[in-house]
């Protein structure tokens, strides 16, 4: 699944895959960022996503049975994340982050993280 909402706050969009399926999504989210001193910045964010008007073009042809269409219902899930950054210079920040989702199948509970380097010029 792809999310068409950008940034944080409120987003709506339509994801579409050629011949496979599509869905509309609405997202409400928030974030909080704080700079401790002049060096460490912390960010916490979260959101709730609801899909609707979901449909799929996938089907299976089973000999002796015919075409079988999958159940493709609307989904909902929560997105959570956090980031800690260290300002290396005025224009460069090194980050460590963790993001995840909480929701029923097929979205499920996921966690991923990583490191980043942000450069402002």
Describe the structure.
By secondary structure, the protein is mainly β. It has one domain (10-119): monomeric porin ompg (Porin, Beta Barrel), CATH 2.40.160.40. The chain contains no helices and eight strands. A six-stranded antiparallel β-sheet has the order 1-2-3-6-7-8, with no helix packed on it. Strands 4-5 form a two-stranded antiparallel sheet. A hairpin with a 3-residue loop joins strand 4 and strand 5 (66-68). It is elongated. 8% of the residues are buried.
- Helical proportion? under 10%
Main β-sheet description: 6 strands, antiparallel
Radius of gyration: 19 Å
Number of DSSP strands? Answer: 8
Uncertain runs are 1-10, 14-18
Number of helices: 0
Architecture (CATH level 2) name: Beta Barrel
Average residue pLDDT? 81
Question: Can you write the helix and strand succession as a string?
Answer: EEEEEEEE
**Going across the major beta sheet, what is the strand order?**
1-2-3-6-7-8
Distance between the termini: 33 Å
Give the full name of the CATH homologous superfamily.
Answer: monomeric porin ompg
CATH classification class: Mainly Beta
Residues in β-strands, percent: over 45%
Q: Tell me the number of structural domains.
A: 1
CATH fold title = Porin
Shape: elongated
User: What structural class do the secondary elements suggest?
Assistant: mainly beta
């Amino acid at each position: 699944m792809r999310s068409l909402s950008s940034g944080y706050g409120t987003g709506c969009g339509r994801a579409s895959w050629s011949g496979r399926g599509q869905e509309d999504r609405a997202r409400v989210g928030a974030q909080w960022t704080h700079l401790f001193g002049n060096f460490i910045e912390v960010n916490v964010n979260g959101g709730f996503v609801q899909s609707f008007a979901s449909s799929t073009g996938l089907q299976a042809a089973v000999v002796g049975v015919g075409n079988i269409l999958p159940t493709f219902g609307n989904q909902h899930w929560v997105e959570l994340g956090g980031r800690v950054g260290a300002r290396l210079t005025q224009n460069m920040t090194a980050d460590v982050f963790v993001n995840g989702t909480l929701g029923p199948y097929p979205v499920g509970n996921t966690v991923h993280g990583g490191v980043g380097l942000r450069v402002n010029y």
